[in-house]
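Hi P.,

Sorry for the delay on this. The queue was packed all week, but I finally got your sequence through. Input first:
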Amino acid sequence: MHPVLRAAAERQWGLFTAVDARRAGYGHDEIRVLCATGGWVRLRRGVYTTAARLADLGDRRHGVDCLAALLSLDRPGAVVSHGSAALLFGLPVWTGLDPTVRLTDPAQWRAGSAFRMSCAPLSPGEVVRRGPFRLTSTARTLVDCAREWPLEDAVVAMDAALLAGWTTPQDLSHAVAAQASWRGAPRARRAIGLADGRAESPLETRGRLRILGAGLPTPELQVEIRSDGRLVGVVDAWFDDAAVAVEFDGRVKYTRPWRDRSAAQVLWEEKRREDELRALGIRVVRIADADLGDPWPATADRVAGLLGTPGPATRPFTATPRALGRRQSA
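Then the structure:
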């Protein structure tokens, strides 16, 4: 590849345009032959990459599609937005999200092959750059998504962003206030009202929303249980009056344990911790993904039954909520 074209591609995640190629001396016929023989791959009209580069990108294909759409449209004011921006940020997204590239431009609405560009205002603080991409900010992205996504999926994404420190409740409130008259703004406000950055997994978020939906009291999240000053454990959710702890038990905890522990170690540590909690008079409820489906009414009844009985009169432990959740890392 000509050095001029290579430099253009390196600035653009390995992508380049027909204009870039012609600037490096490649003619139309040469471009056509390179595509026909498999050396280059046409992503969109006038946008290409090499076959080797496309293979290297792997699961970043949606990012490739976003950048190809931006290069094809050649609109400097357009940014990646909505679900596409959420994917590029690495946020959990709605399982029903379609692969359409979502863009926003302050001056033009347009739709075409596998892309949709909304026309909407973009303030300077609502646009960020990540590598070759211009994206809506995390808060703007979350609010745009929450106006369209199911409530639960919107709250899952917000909780993940708050936990990671990528946005704040204030940022979300300011973003939705700027969209007060836009379609879907009330549902975005509802999602913000339910978001809590102490939830450390999508399961914890979904479980908390099921608890609220069942009419049960709002639990405290990430509560440290100590006895004689020693940390016994941190429970995912806590009902203080009844001394009931809820643990949201995701399979990933055992299939992909962190901190260099084996699955057997995790299982043993979980058992020992639960035994200690129960010895202190704390009732423990474990809720898995499967419990949030058809079995949920029975699970909710079980929790309600425990909450109907007060906790121990004398407590050999203290329960202190953490101000922030903690991201798990390997």
